[in-house]
């Protein structure tokens, strides 16, 4: 979340997409003083390829007002006080306002000040790849939890009813939300204001259920996924996201591989996986009490809760199953 007073219980589609509450910044602008243009160019060089467009605007007193609504996120290469004073009167609605993230000239700190879950946290995370420390103040990030907006991003979906996320993200913080339920239509659904509805951004595809040994490398994940897709007669474009168990969600090689393929990563708790155990025996059940992560996560996260491909092992390091 951002430092907005009513945003303290929510997490991080385009910010201005017509039916999206906006979890992702796609078009950003760096606002910089003339003397800081070299740093602005450095930012473009460092993270520009992660966005549909990235532009540099020279700072002047009315620059934010002049370009308000043109970008998903402003990156203010300036003191946070300047950005706050120059944009405070423009802020109207957290679902529609552009996000704002400020960063200092030395790229030491990246501070989301508004729209944390609507692009500013994302930009701060990207600036971390250039050495900046993301100073997140949103509740879910502070608690190291994945709020519903971030889950939507991982699922390549967007939040339809933004006001509901206050209640559902409180449930995330209290470990009471549980897994996202998938519902296939045609159906009519009646929900309350404490139910967050996610809508898909593209047609249904397949899920790569993935387990691994500790320390598995990025290349091993990518090779395992490619082999599994070949055997399932699927392409990379058919993949919705990667699913794994919470005990594997911080594997560096897994995160790097998912990022390289621009795939979201969804992690499922042990009790959720136990409802969807796969047909192939797994030693993890005997050793640590977890069901086989690859098959269980593929089945649990797939739209039909079915296996397209039973698990395969690669290099004795990564296991992959394909779910649909």
Q: Give, in spatial order, the strands making up the sheet with the most strands.
A: 2-1-3-4-5-6
Quaternary state, please? single chain
**Largest beta sheet, briefly?**
6 strands, mixed
**Low-pLDDT stretches:** 1-22
Q: Helical amount among residues, as a percent range?
A: 25-40%
CATH class of the largest domain: Alpha Beta
Number of helical regions: 12
The CATH topology label of the largest domain is: Rossmann fold
Features:
single chain; CobE/GbiG_C_sf; five-stranded mixed sheet; hydrolase activity; Rossmann fold; Cobalt-precorrin 5A hydrolase; CobE/GbiG_C; 29% helix; Nucleotidyltransferase, domain 5; disordered N terminus
Report what the structure shows.
- There is one protein chain.
- This protein is of the alpha/beta class and about 325 residues long.
- It folds into three domains: about 5-140, Rossmann fold, CATH 3.40.50; about 150-200, no CATH class; about 205-324, Nucleotidyltransferase, domain 5 (2-Layer Sandwich).
- Helices cover about 30% and strands about 20% of the residues.
- The protein contains twelve helices and 13 strands.
- A six-stranded mixed β-sheet has the order 2-1-3-4-5-6, with helices on both faces.
- Strand 4 (about 100-105) and strand 5 form a beta hairpin.
- Helix 8 packs across helix 9.
- Mean pLDDT is about 85; it is low at about 1-20.
């Amino acid at each position: 979340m951002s430092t907005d007073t009513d945003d303290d219980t929510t997490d991080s589609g385009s910010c201005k997409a017509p039916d999206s509450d906006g979890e992702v910044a796609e078009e950003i602008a760096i606002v910089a003083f003339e003397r800081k243009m070299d740093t602005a160019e450095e930012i473009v060089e460092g993270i520009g390829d992660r966005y549909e467009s990235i532009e540099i605007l020279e700072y002047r007193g009315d620059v934010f007002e002049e370009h308000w609504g043109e970008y998903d996120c402003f990156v203010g290469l300036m003191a946070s006080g300047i950005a706050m004073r120059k944009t405070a009167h423009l802020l109207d609605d957290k679902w529609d306002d552009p996000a704002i993230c400020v960063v200092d000239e030395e790229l030491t700190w990246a501070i989301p000040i508004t729209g944390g879950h609507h692009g500013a946290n994302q930009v701060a995370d990207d600036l971390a790849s250039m050495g900046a420390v993301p100073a997140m103040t949103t509740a879910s990030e502070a608690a190291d939890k994945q709020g519903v907006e971030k889950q939507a991003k991982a699922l390549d979906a967007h939040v339809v009813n933004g006001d509901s996320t206050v209640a559902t993200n409180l449930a995330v913080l209290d470990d009471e939300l549980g897994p996202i339920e998938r519902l296939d239509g045609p159906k009519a659904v009646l929900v309350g204001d404490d139910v967050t509805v996610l809508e898909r951004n593209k047609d249904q595809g397949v899920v790569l259920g993935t387990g691994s040994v500790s320390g598995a490398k990025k290349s091993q994940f990518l090779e395992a996924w490619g082999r599994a897709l070949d055997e399932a007669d699927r392409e990379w474009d058919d993949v919705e996201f990667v699913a794994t168990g919470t005990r594997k969600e911080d594997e560096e090689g897994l995160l790097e591989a998912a990022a390289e393929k621009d795939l979201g990563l969804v992690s499922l708790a042990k009790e959720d996986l136990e409802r969807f155990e796969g047909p192939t025996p797994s030693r993890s059940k005997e050793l640590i009490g977890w069901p086989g992560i690859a098959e269980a996560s593929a089945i649990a996260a797939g739209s039909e809760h079915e296996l397209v491909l039973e698990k395969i092992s690669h290099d004795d390091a990564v296991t992959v199953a394909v779910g649909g």
